[in-house]
């Protein structure tokens, strides 16, 4: 699963839906893999308009990526900053979580990621 996916996932436990601690889920013991893809700045710019930047900043830090700026770069800034473009491309487009866990910051439930697929099925007592 792409790192970007973490920006759209929240804990599936009902009691966590209303908690801001359940987003983003926190990667733990993750094995990352990287696909080399050509930089597509138009696509990246488009993706950046949809992401929750604060959550992305958290995810990037937890995965050990270079610290992101406090606010997302504007399309103009991105076009003029080769280094930022490459870093965001690597983080959002190329990097995938292959194995590991995604942990909810509210209930502590750990979702397993195996062979790039996160398992969001909950045990019966949590549904
Ligand atoms: Zn939860």
List the helices and strands and how they pair.
Elements lengths: L25 E9 L6 H8 L4 H10 L12 H5 L2 H13 E9 L6 E5 L2 E2 L9
Antiparallel strand pairs: 1-2, 2-3, 3-4
Q: In a few lines, what is going on in this structure?
A:
With about 130 residues, the protein is of the alpha+beta class. Helices cover about 30% and strands about 20% of the residues.
Overall mean pLDDT: 95
Q: Which consecutive residue ranges, at least 5 long each, have pLDDT under 50?
A: none
Count of helical stretches? 4
The helix/strand order is EHHHHEEE
Q: Sum up the overall morphology in one term.
A: globular
Question: What does the largest sheet look like?
Answer: 4 strands, antiparallel
Radius of gyration: 15 Å
Protein name: Multifunctional methyltransferase subunit trm112
Pfam families: Trm112p
Subcellular location: Cytoplasm; Nucleus
Keywords: Cytoplasm, Nucleus
Structural commentary:
There is one protein chain. The chain is of the alpha+beta class and 127 residues long. It has one domain: N-terminal domain of TfIIb (Single Sheet). It contains four helices and four strands. It has helices at 41-48, 53-62, 75-79, 82-94; strands at residues 26-34, 95-103, 110-114, 117-118. The protein has a four-stranded antiparallel sheet. Strand 3 (110-114) and strand 4 form a beta hairpin. It is globular and about 50 Å long. The mean pLDDT is 95. The protein binds zinc ion (ZN).
């Amino acid at each position: 699963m792409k790192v970007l996916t973490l920006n759209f996932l929240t804990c599936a436990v009902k009691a966590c839906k209303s908690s801001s601690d359940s987003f983003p889920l926190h990667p733990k013991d993750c094995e990352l893999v990287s696909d080399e893809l050509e930089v597509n700045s138009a696509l990246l710019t488009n993706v950046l308009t949809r992401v929750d930047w604060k959550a992305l900043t958290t995810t990037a830090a937890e995965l050990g990526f270079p610290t992101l700026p406090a606010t997302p770069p504007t399309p103009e800034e991105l076009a003029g900053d080769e280094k930022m473009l490459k870093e965001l491309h690597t983080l959002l487009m190329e990097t995938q979580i292959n194995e590991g866990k995604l942990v909810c910051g509210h209930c502590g439930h750990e979702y397993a990621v195996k062979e790039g697929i996160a398992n969001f099925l909950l045990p019966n007592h949590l549904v």
